[in-house]
Design a protein that fits this description.
Blueprint lengths: L1 H10 L10 E6 L5 E5 L5 E3 L9 H10 L6 H8 L3 H13 L15 E6 L4 H4 L1 E3 L1 E13 L5 E7 L3 H10 L2 H6 L1 E4 L14 E3 L8 H13 L14 H21 L2
Parallel strand pairs: 4-8, 8-9
Antiparallel strand pairs: 1-2, 2-3, 4-6, 5-6, 6-7
């Protein structure tokens, strides 16, 4: 019995660290012998027919999740199952930072805030069906063009208030806010900090350009698409993931 165990340890090596110090560790669901590495703790099956996704492949999938590619398209390109991708996607979303990877600069005197409320075809989206409309409220720093806060909800003043509470305190206290003339902002943003402007003023150009970028790169936001979200949590998480990636890209440019 001991001889057989030693032979197994000598012939086996951990797929992660390459150590030959392995031991038998029960059986998996199909009856195959399971092994465990004594060095790193990795569990594995010898000559497994199950595809193992490498760290490099996972990194590529993370990048693909931030592009306008359907989940099944990622599955075809990366040769992974939809079940695995959904699980991986959820694990990535759960680790997203609450600050959206936003980094303040020394000067933060001005901010642009804009809700796509008056233009339904600009950032209108839905979850499950088109009757379940979801509006994306976004706050952007003028100087760095980073997104400092976002909220997904309806067009009401309550949603404007939710966004306001998500904006960092230093902005709520000192920043000037430029918005369109949607009435929901009244009573939420302090009057002395609020400037409601027309689109022709150019004061909301940057945030409108970002909305277009979102449309082009987040498949769930395409007006006519088969890639719409089935769950609100996934819808919000996908938007949050893109914003976190976008903020990191902006930080590299300044």
């Amino acid at each position: 019995m001991q001889t057989g165990t030693l032979r197994t340890e000598e012939q086996s090596c951990c797929p992660d660290c390459g150590s030959t110090r392995v031991k038998k560790n029960g059986h998996i669901h199909n009856g195959k012998q399971n092994h465990r590495c004594k060095e790193c703790g990795r569990q594995f099956v010898l000559e497994s027919t199950q595809k193992r996704i490498t760290a490099g492949e996972k990194e590529k999938i993370r990048k693909l999740l931030a592009e306008r590619i359907a989940l099944r398209g990622i599955c075809r390109v990366m040769d992974v199952s939809l079940k695995w991708l959904l699980g991986f996607m959820v694990s990535v979303y759960e680790k997203l930072p609450e600050d959206l990877n936003f980094r303040e600069t020394e000067e933060t005197d001005e901010i642009v805030i804009y809700a796509l409320a008056s233009e339904v075809d600009e950032m209108w989206s839905f979850v499950g069906n088109k009757k379940n409309k979801q509006w994306i409220w976004i706050a952007m720093d003028v100087k760095t063009r980073q997104i400092i806060a976002f909220y997904v909800g309806d067009r009401s003043r309550d949603s404007a208030q939710e966004l306001w509470q998500l904006i960092p305190a230093v902005y709520r206290q000192k920043a000037t806010f430029y918005t369109d003339k949607w009435e929901a902002y009244e009573g939420v943003i302090p009057k002395k900090q609020h400037q409601a402007v027309d689109k022709q003023s150019g004061k909301t150009n940057h945030i409108e350009r970002f909305n277009c970028t979102m449309r082009q790169r987040v498949s769930r936001l395409v007006r006519k698409a088969l890639s719409f979200s089935k769950k609100l949590t996934n819808h919000i998480a996908a938007i949050k993931y893109f914003i976190c990636c976008y903020n990191l890209e902006k930080q590299l440019s300044f």
